[in-house]
Automatic annotation (TrEMBL):
Organism listed in the record: Pedobacter duraquae
Domain TfoX N-terminal: 13-96
SUPFAM superfamilies, A to Z: YgaC/TfoX-N like
Protein name: TfoX/Sxy family transcriptional regulator of competence genes
InterPro entries per UniProt: TfoX_N
Pfam families, per database record: TfoX_N
Length: 107
């Protein structure tokens, strides 16, 4: 099941305090980026954040799940998705540990 655009828009609105947030459609689902760095996915109307040590400490009782079959587990964010301040802070914390995007090769 593909994610609904209304859900994607809601998530982007919730985390807009984390930087310049964009969503790119990928295989019927969405990659979520802040300032050009991918940090999460939206699959089946669920938000998944890439796992980091600091993110795990911030969340506390982490729920991990694969966003799609064959994917590595990510942090599944469910109840806290309504808390914009909490979610924005999680994104900022996670971004600090994630690597910078690789420069694109010129064709």
């Amino acid at each position: 099941m593909a994610s609904d655009q209304n859900f994607v828009d809601f998530v982007i609105e919730q985390i807009q305090k984390s930087g310049e947030i964009t969503a790119k459609k990928m295989f019927g689902e969405y990659g979520i980026y802040a300032d050009g760095k991918i940090f999460g996915l939206i699959c089946d109307n669920k938000l998944f954040i890439k796992p980091t040590v600091a993110g795990r400490a911030f969340i506390g009782d982490v729920v991990e799940a694969a966003p799609y079959e064959g994917a590595k587990p990510s942090f599944l964010i469910e109840e806290q998705i309504e808390d914009s301040d909490w979610l924005s802070e999680l994104v900022r914390i996670s971004l600090s540990e994630l690597p910078a995007p690789k420069p694109k090769k010129k064709k």
